[in-house]
Amino acid sequence: xxxxxxxxxxxxxxxxxxxxxxxxxxxxxxxxxxxxxxxxxxxxxxxxxxxxxxxxxxxxxxxxxxxxxxxxxxxxxxxxxxxxxxxxxxxxxxxxxxxxxxxxxxxxxxxxxxxxxxxxxxxxxxxxxxxxxxxxxxxxxxxxxxxxxxxxxxxxxxxxxxxxxxx
Amino acid sequence: xxxxxxxxxxxxxxxxxxxxxxxxxxxxxxxxxxxxxxxxxxxxxxxxxxxxxxxxxxxxxxxxxxxxxxxxxxxxxxxxxxxxxxxxxxxxxxxxxxxxxxxxxxxxxxxxxxxxxxxxxxxxxxxxxxxxxxxxxxxxxxxxxxxxxxxxxxxxxxxxxxxxxxxxxxxxxxxxxxxxxxxxxxxxxxxxxxxxxxxxxxxxxxxxxxxxxxxxxxxxxxxxxxxxxxxxxxxxxxxxxxxxxxxxxxxxxxxxxxxxxxxxxxx
Lengths: 167, 267
Fold this sequence. Notes:
The complex is a heterodimer of chains A (about 170) and B (about 270). Chain A has nine helices and three strands.
């Protein structure tokens, strides 16, 4: 069975039920609209509006979901290292995200957050953390378009305070 | 639904305008060094670093160490990040206590080794430094009576942690027997003591320890073959998985094996 998803720019995407269910947000909306896998009529007569996702971003999200639709669900524990250094971004995901500039990554991450697709959200978080890794503060600010409101004197003072522990 | 950030340009965007859930996730994925660099980018990032959970790190060490001149010094590390040469200047310890709260609001540590003997590290310092720590496995090393007392106090600060006592000296019997049940107790097991050295853990104390604590690592116990049998009975009473490591003389083991008809000739 297929589910119709409608983006903010009125583009309709018809996706497999399994792919639609990968989004917690879409799942909840389907439930609220009494759409079920076994009821074709309910699926044909309804479409899910997604006002926070554009056509371009939705296409990327669906591409990611297509690749991961058969993945085993992962359990996350508070005390494991996943999410900091051992969240492994697979080769396919690295390739999928590598040409996205930061702005595009943010749009995709915003969609993953809104649609509640945890795997995609984690992949993007780790990709951005990897972009920061080993960079100096000026490089981080430039990369992420951050306007530095610290004065040189303040920066010097902060550096001075922590220089001894920045090995 | 989460608020969605407003894009001012197709490819540029302020990282800090992103949803809070993402920023919190991001902060848990950064290394300590990256957090330090991020603090210098702007005031908002400085606040974000100070007010966010640092995520889970594999290990932390707060232990005495020796410098090139074989002088005792303080060593503090979180994973591969060392908090510098703490003893090189007066007031460094105070600086550490001031800087730590600027780097995270909470931090999870899988395994932390702490030796607080009151000489190199004082109890107040260790308590202040670890105030925001959530420790999964707490390994408390002590080599003096004072260190042992401090370890007990620190254990109470982390009631949810799995606790290991690594004793590099033998406390008085009363002190050892007053220990509440703990996950692992190791007495001089790490030292390179030879069997012919005089120190032994006498058998009655050994029995009490294995009755109380889950995992025991000790060196030589002057045990007879009957007492070896009793040791196995005590261990066997417990349904849970546990480890008891000790050294018994080969004579004891041979006598015990012979009791069951096993000898050099046995197949």
